[in-house]
Request: fold
Amino acid sequence: LPSKEVRLIRKECFATIGEVSNNEAILIQSGKAGRTRWLGKRPTVRGSVMNPCDHPHGGGEGRTPVGRTRPLTPWGKPALGMKTRNKKKASSAYIIRRCN
Reply:
């Protein structure tokens, strides 16, 4: 896989090996906020500028730090570096070498 992960594939299954074409499409800059709004994307608001009722990083006077032991998602789960894959997932048996 492109992520350097090595997996087993059952012989009844079909697999496509290769790369996605036009992978440079993500390098196109929109140029202005309105052009991305035409595509249906809404602005991304940082958690630190929200109210404490909206995000665990919100609230405080001025530009305050996170104020917790680690960064959290809006739902209170650990973010940035925490592994989120379920250890009991059925397809974990097919992974020979993890990507990280």
Q: What stands out?
A: The longest strand covers residues 95-97. The helical segments are 33-38. The beta strands are 6-7, 95-97.
